[in-house]
Structures are given as structure tokens and as C-alpha cells.
Design brief:
heterodimer, A: 375 residues, alpha/beta, Transcription Regulator spoIIAA, 2 domains, 13 helices, 4 strands, 70% helix, elongated, B: 252 residues, Rossmann fold, six-stranded mixed sheet, four-stranded antiparallel sheet, 38% helix, disordered C terminus
């Protein structure tokens, strides 16, 4: 059918009575119109300007929505008074005439910015409130599991530790090692100027154990596991798995949130230890190279130079960071609406929020523990 | 053979070493509605995916409009793809776009029409599938199952295709919506002179819509012909299929 019909044709003919008639024929579908769309649109509207023009569409073999719209628009959105057309085409134009107009989208108005600011503030408060709610639900779950520890999701917790912890070992090792080298080299330059070479041990030990190790591990884990937790829970919303859990009477805070929060709170401190060790190793190598302080001397001096409280502080921070990251990730995951746009949006927000939160918490730690471990 | 729109020749497909389709020969004539039936795991969906160019068969050819789908160059493939419409089982609407934008997307991709014409075409198509213009700005997540199917149908029809692939067009619909969908398809077929290939489980849809039925069982095409002939064929799968569904309300 369409294969046989020719390209769209349009011409003005004189009929027997000498009246000028616009005669259309051929294939008026999107594919045939393709190149001639603009030219035909011009010709048509010029022809339509003449009042009381007569139209003959009976020669059209194929008319699709795009072709009908082209004609209809050039007629000024109404059928001409004098027109000959096939029955099935008439139905198409009737539908076009009935199809209601789409209301234009709202334009930016004065004051929208203020309204948006207000909406964001409310949004923030709502997020805060729902995090608190989640925390409360988590505590209740925890309390309810205390008398029956066998019912806790041990298997999920164990899997979570593997996913968030074990699989993160290579990347945290690499980053920790490199940062250790960088910090050590940079400090070595300054220390050598003062002739205080041996203080590299104090500098490196305290900065790595107290700040760098926990922060590096936390930021890497927030980007890695935090985003995957948010996306995972979000997809469960998309595929109605969350609804299925609720319908089965299974608390998703207990099933989904708790294992993630617990496993990350356990895995991150261990990752902190690992990152500390690799960062120190990198630092020691650089110190030997830049200052001539060998590994033996370094390790011998380390316990004297750095009080062990710093280590515990770092590991403790790791546990708190892990808790915060998992809680934030789960919170944003549960907030995801069932569409792909919000999935991306909330995953981004989850990572940004958890890293911000980690640094915020780190600052609080720094103030609260300013007397501990810094002799 | 010139009026065969879709032709499968000796199509074999294996997934992970498991044979899904074995030596499938199939031809769909212009203007007919062919239904693919078969039990779960018979290979219907895989065959459909092969026909719409999503899965290259391990052996055999697929011809669409006389062109070899998997051996055509990229430009030809694009033209072929613009001449067919596909309705996926779950609708496969883009969840981040409104119904309007979903339907407008294939049109925008052609870069032939200005915004105002696109709006007119989309509203026409929405009216054609029986969607309210008020639903146009909604997101797919806000739609009911029947509305999702309608919106997806509007999207698959927006380029006025000659060929339409339907994967379970009435699954997940209540009997009333399913009946409405069937009559919608019937009227569209008359208006647009469509050739349709559909996968369906629903015996009711099969009876109302299909001109011919192709039955798949144990990876093979066991029968093809009008429904009345297929019903009489003595094959264990077909006997079971029609006896299990005959006489009771087809499950949605």
C-alpha cells in the first residue's frame, strides 16, 4: 500500500467551471513528507489564505497523523468549508478538531524563588523528621530483638560486612597508601628545614590514626556502599518489593535498614584499621626515602610519640561514620519515588549528604576530644 | 512472498547453551493479526525479541519488509525501526518522562516536526487510544495499569507504523479493560491498516483479534493457521492449552 503510493503532491488546478481547486494526492505520511515538510507547509498556508478555496483530498492514498496535522494547521485548525475527502480521512480530521489543547506550562513568576527556598527548608525539616523516625523504628526493632537474638538478621549482616568491608579492601588500601606517601613527603620537606626529622613519626602517626584513616575510609565507603544501598532500596521501591515486604507483615526497617546499619557500623572500623596500616606503611616508605628514618626506628618510636588513645578514637569514629552513612543511605533509599529520575537524584543526594554528615561529625569529634591523646 | 511483512527463516536461538527457539519458520502477511501462543518457557518472548531486533539469532534470518534485519546497515535498520511499533508487556514507559513526553519522544527523534505539530500529533494519538488530555502531564508512576498500556500503545503508534508488535497486550488488565483494549486494537487496525504480531496468553484476545495463530511448544513452532484449525490439531500442548482455558473466564 504505502510502498506503492507516490510522494505527496500538491497543485492548484482549474476545474470545468474555471474555479481554482487545490488538489492533493499521494502519500502524506511522516516518512514521505520528511524532506518536503517545510516547503509544503508554506505552499499550503499560502493556498489556504485565499478565501473560499476549494480542496480536493480524494487522491491521497495514505494520510497519517503528522500529515493530517500539517494540513489542519495550515487551514488554521478548522476544516475548510468546501472540501472533498475520503471517509476515513474525514474521521481523522474530526478527531483532530476534537482533540483539546494542552495548557502551557506555568512560567516563572515573581516570588517563585522565595517559594522554592521555603519549600527547600520544609523539605530539609521533613528529611530530618523522617531520619529521626527511622532511628526510632530502628531502636524499637533493636529492643524487640534483644530477648530473641536468634531472630536477628545475622545472615544479612554477615553479607553486608562482606559487601561493604571485604570488597572495599583493595581501593581503601590503594588510596590510604598513596595519601600516606603524600603526607609523609610534604611533611618531610618542612621538618628537614627545622632539623626536626624524627617528628615525622608524631606528625604522621597522629594525622593518620586520628583523622586521615577514618575520613578516607568513610568517604570511600560513602561513595561506594552508601550509593549502592540507596540505589538498591530505591529499585526495590520501583519493583514494588517494598510493598511486598509490607504486605507480608515484614518490617522493612528490620529487614533492610538494620542489617545495613549494623554491618556498616562493624565493617567501617575494621576498614579504618586497614587504611591506617596502609597509610602508615606508605608514610614509612616515604620517610625512609626522604629523611633516612628506617622502618625499625619509625615503628620503635611510634608508641611513644602517639598515645594509643588516638587509635581508639579513630576506630570509634569509624563506627559512628559507618552508622551515619548507612542510616543516610537507607533514609534516602526509602524516599525514592517509583521513577528513574528520582532514583538518580536521591542516590546523588545520599552520597553528598553522607559525606557532609561524616565531615560534620568529624568536626564535632575534634571539638569534643580535643584533650584526649594529644600530649 | 512479496506481501509478507515479517519472515523468520530457520531461526535458532540459544541462551547460555540452552536452546530456546529451534528452526522457527514463520511469515506474517500484510494486514493480518498473527498471535503467538505457547506455555511458559516455550520461547515466545525470545522469538518476539528476535523479531524486533533485540536479540540476534544464533542461526537463521529475520526479514522485515523484505529486508534482512540483522544484516542490514545501520541506516536501513533505523528506517525499519521507524516503520514498526512495539508495545512491551509492562509498557516500558520512561518513568522520568510524562505521558506526553513519552509519546512525543519518537517524534522528536525524527526531528521533522516543530513543537506545535508534535503537540497536535501527540494529543491526537492520546485521543485515539482513549486517554484523557488531563493525563498527559502525569508521570507513568501515577497511572493505572490500563492507562499505562494505553499510553504505551499511543507511543508505539505515534509514528503511524505499518507493523505493530504486542507483547501480552491484555495481561494485567481486568476483563472490562481487556475488552476495551481489544476493541481499541480492532478499530485502530481498520483505521491504520496495521499488521500485528502479538504474544498472548489470553484466549479471549486470541478469539477476538487474531486472524492466524502460531503455537510454540518445546522450542519449536508446532502449528500455524486460523484458530479454528489450531483447535483441531492433536498435539499434547494444544489439547491441554485449549481444554484448560475453554469454558472459563480467561484469566487476566
Amino acid at each position: 500500500m504505502s510502498a506503492q503510493s507516490g510522494p505527496p503532491t500538491f497543485e492548484i488546478q482549474d476545474d470545468a467551471q474555471g474555479r481554482r481547486i487545490a488538489v492533493l494526492g499521494g502519500d502524506w505520511s511522516l516518512r514521505s513528507l520528511r524532506r518536503r515538510h517545510r516547503g509544503l507547509a508554506l505552499d499550503l498556508s499560502r493556498a489556504a489564505q485565499e478565501p473560499d478555496r476549494e480542496w480536493d483530498l480524494r487522491e491521497i492514498d495514505r494520510l497519517d497523523a503528522a500529515g493530517a496535522v500539517l494540513l489542519f494547521r495550515s487551514w488554521g485548525r478548522a476544516l475548510p468549508g468546501r472540501i472533498h475527502l475520503r471517509e476515513q480521512h474525514a474521521a481523522l480530521f474530526d478527531r483532530l478538531g476534537e482533540a483539546p489543547r494542552l495548557e502551557p506550562a506555568a512560567r516563572y513568576a515573581f516570588g517563585d524563588g522565595i517559594a522554592a527556598l521555603g519549600a527547600r527548608s520544609f523539605d530539609f525539616v521533613m528529611h530530618l523528621a523522617s531520619v529521626v523516625t527511622l532511628l526510632g523504628r530502628l531502636s524499637l526493632d533493636f529492643v524487640s530483638l534483644l530477648p530473641r537474638p536468634g531472630r536477628a538478621p545475622w545472615r544479612e549482616i554477615s553479607a553486608g560486612i562482606y559487601r561493604a568491608g571485604v570488597t572495599a579492601l583493595p581501593i581503601t588500601a590503594l588510596v590510604g597508601f598513596l595519601i600516606g606517601i603524600v603526607v609523609s613527603y610534604l611533611s618531610a620537606q618542612q621538618l628537614r628545614a627545622f632539623g626536626a626529622n624524627i617528628f615525622i613519626v608524631n606528625l604522621l602517626g597522629i594525622s593518620v590514626l586520628r583523622e586521615l584513616g577514618p575520613l578516607l575510609a568513610a568517604i570511600l565507603v560513602a561513595g561506594r556502599s552508601g550509593s549502592s544501598m540507596t540505589a538498591q532500596i530505591g529499585v526495590m521501591r520501583l519493583t514494588q518489593e517494598l510493598d511486598a515486604l509490607s504486605a507480608m507483615g515484614i518490617s522493612y526497617s528490620q529487614r533492610l535498614v538494620m542489617p545495613r546499619v549494623v554491618s556498616l557500623s562493624l565493617a567501617l572500623p575494621l576498614l579504618v584499621l586497614w587504611t591506617d596500616a596502609l597509610a602508615l606503611w606508605g608514610g614509612i616508605l616515604a620517610a625512609e626515602h626522604a629523611l633516612g628514618i628506617g622502618p625499625q626506628l619509625f615503628l620503635l618510636k611510634l608508641p611513644d610519640a602517639v598515645p594509643v588513645a588516638n587509635l581508639w578514637l579513630g576506630v570509634g569514629k569509624g563506627a559512628v561514620f559507618g552508622f551515619l552513612i548507612a542510616l543516610t543511605a537507607c533514609h534516602f533509599g526509602l524516599k525514592i519515588e517509583p521513577d528513574t529520575k528520582s532514583l538518580g537524584q536521591y542516590t546523588t543526594r545520599s552520597v553528598v549528604a553522607s559525606i557532609t554528615l561524616v565531615i560534620l561529625a568529624d568536626a564535632v569529634f575534634a571539638i569534643l576530644t580535643s584533650h584526649a591523646g594529644l600530649t | 512472498m512479496t506481501d509478507a511483512v515479517v519472515v523468520a527463516e530457520q531461526v535458532c536461538t540459544r541462551i547460555d547453551g540452552r536452546v530456546i527457539n529451534r528452526d522457527i519458520d514463520l511469515s506474517v502477511r500484510r494486514g493480518e493479526i498473527l498471535a503467538l501462543i505457547g506455555g511458559s518457557g516455550a520461547g515466545k518472548t525470545t522469538l518476539l525479541r528476535t523479531l524486533i531486533g533485540l536479540r540476534r539469532p544464533n542461526a537463521g534470518r529475520v526479514r522485515i519488509f523484505g529486508r534482512d534485519l540483522y544484516r542490514a546497515d545501520a541506516a536501513t535498520q533505523r528506517v525499519i525501526r521507524q516503520r514498526w511499533g512495539v508495545l512491551f508487556q509492562g509498557g516500558a514507559l520512561f518513568s522520568a518522562l510524562s505521558v506526553f513526553e513519552n509519546v512525543a519522544l519518537p517524534l522528536r527523534e525524527t526531528r521533522l516536526l516543530d513543537d506545535a505539530s508534535i503537540t497536535d500529533v501527540v494529543m491526537l494519538k492520546l485521543a485515539q487510544v482513549g486517554l484523557d488530555p488531563k493525563d498527559a502531564p502525569k508521570l507513568p508512576a501515577q497511572l493505572s495499569g490500563g492507562m499505562v498500556k494505553r499510553a504505551a500503545l499511543a507511543r508505539s503508534l505515534v509514528l503511524d507504523p505499518e507493523l505493530l508488535f504486542l507483547d501480552e497486550p491484555t495481561s494485567g488488565l481486568d476483563p472490562l479493560s481487556a475488552a476495551a483494549f481489544q476493541s481499541l486494537l480492532t478499530s485502530l487496525r481498520q483505521d491504520l491498516r496495521l499488521t500485528v504480531v502479538m504474544v498472548t496468553h489470553d484466549l479471549d484476545t486470541l478469539t477476538v483479534l487474531s486472524d492466524r495463530v502460531a503455537a510454540l511448544a518445546e522450542q519449536r513452532l508446532v502449528a500455524i493457521g486460523p484458530l479454528s484449525e489450531i483447535r483441531e490439531i492433536d498435539h499434547p500442548f494444544l489439547r491441554e492449552y485449549f481444554s484448560s482455558e475453554r469454558g472459563r473466564q480467561p484469566s487476566p
